[in-house]
Amino acid sequence: MSRRGSAVLAADPAAGSAPRSAPGDTGRRRDADRRQLPAFVWVLPPVLVLAAVFLYPLALVVQQSFSPDSGGTSLQPYTDVFASGAFREALGTTVWLAVGATVGCLVLGFVLALVIAFVPFPGGKAVAKFIDVFLSFPSFLITLALLFVYGTVGMANGVWTDVTGAHSGPFQFLTTPWGVLLAEITYFTPFVMRPLLAAFSQLDTAQLEVASSLGARPARIVRRVILPEALPALAAGGSLVLVMCLNEFGIVLFTGAKGVTTLPMLVYSKAILESDYPAACVVAVVNIAISVGLYGLYRVVSRRVGA
Amino acid sequence: MLVHSRGGRWATWTVFFALFLPVFALPLLVIVAASFATNWSGAFPSGFTTGHYGAATTGDSLQALTTSLVTALTASVLALTVGAWAALAAAALKKGGRRFMDALFVLPVAVPSVVVGLAVLVAFSKPPVLLNGTRWIVILAHTVLVMAFAYQSVSAAILRLDPMYEQAAASLGARPLLVLWRVKLPLLLPSLTAAAGLCFALSMGELSATMMLYPPDWTPLPVQIFAITDRGSLFTGAAVAVVLMATTLLVLLGVSRIRTKASFR
């Protein structure tokens, strides 16, 4: 998982690439027959593979979303799903959880990256490395850990009952949306920190020294010098996290909360638990539309800022 | 340096660790601690035992580990082959074509993995290709999901490649395939192994699409962890989770060693 952020960020093609075989050199090396094949021929095999294993299945999902169990082709599945309270609730929960987690990740990630970059301490490198490792673990481990920390018999409630002698602790939020929110903020904050740390490492520290020697206090330097520099990285990291939160499944599944249903969870329960494939496909199409749209926005933002 | 006073620096660091440790270090430590415990109803776990690791490395869990390893290895090799091929071929295209390939091959990242699982399930549960109920449907979904990351890391590496080497080789009369095999691929080897490690780690932890697809006789580790914790055996689940993390880390470590060896050539 680790380099999800950086891999995505790094993928933006910079202008200029290796000059290839020029069209005019045909006579020079007549024996190099392979060279005569146009470049797009070499692209075809992987594209065909992708089409067979990804695009064709996706098209079938869209097709199935228009095919109710009663047969024929109609918008019936859509009207049914849109009319159901479960879908509206899931849509609302998904959006507010994703937005909330993104805001939380941005704030927390900005503060942490700020300290690592500008108030350096021994071991800061190790912390940055730890974050890389953190990203290579699956998300549901966070929920599993939170069960031991804030669960009904976990650490926090255990301490509370020991200290106060009460029967049960006050921390009962894990199976509510707040538990999912906490887990998502924990897991996705590193995805904001990585682009931020990259952006901070390019910032000329002389600017900070000048501002500071002119009498600006740290809060003012952060607001007037660092924040404007960090905005592109924040935008790129934030939109990536927003998309990943919208699509998060493991955290919600492990929370095991009946009250928290997000769109991916609804796809799973409609398809696997209820075997209602047309409805699952409708939810899937809505989910694809939201996240592909946002992901496109993210690509545009991160390309524009060159992050 | 943003904060100049000594006291201010210490205060900043205190705030940093007050945020960092509970949020990032605690979860991993807690899982490791819980995997050695029989009970956790106070500040610290109690009842030290290594028994959970016995359960985590035998029977179903051992089978889940090998399942995960085989799945991740197969999916990484397949995804890397297709992804690297696509990235190399896309680099030869003009700008518009490259943009198109970039958009096409990152699409699996943007589509929710649950939906990828659903799509694969819908498509391969009926003729012409019937894979539902076999291990191949899981491996196929993993391949689709990690292919995008393989493509992205390889194409980013190609952009950083110095074109002088291949031009020199070509000017000496090497055919394109020879240039690819003897010049470009060796130069790309560090990025290829890094991409392989990334794909492997992602596939090891994949849960969303797998939950939609796995047949009863092909249960990868994340699904096994979910099944165990869902039964209420949280501590055994923690031990299996530690096995998952340790395996992933070991493989990443091995891959990074290959990388440093290759870069010293």
Automatic annotation (TrEMBL), chain B:
Membrane topology according to the record: Multi-pass membrane protein
Domain of life of the organism encoding this protein: Bacteria
Main location: membrane
Keywords from the UniProt entry: Cell inner membrane, Cell membrane, Membrane, Transmembrane, Transmembrane helix, Transport
InterPro entries membership: MetI-like (IPR000515), MetI-like_sf (IPR035906)
Bilayer-crossing regions: 12-37, 69-91, 103-124, 136-159, 187-214, 234-255
Domain ABC transmembrane type-1, first and last residues per copy: 65-253
Subcellular location: Cell inner membrane; Cell membrane
Family: Belongs to the binding-protein-dependent transport system permease family.
Name listed for the protein in its UniProt record: ABC transporter, permease protein
Origin species: Streptomyces xanthochromogenes
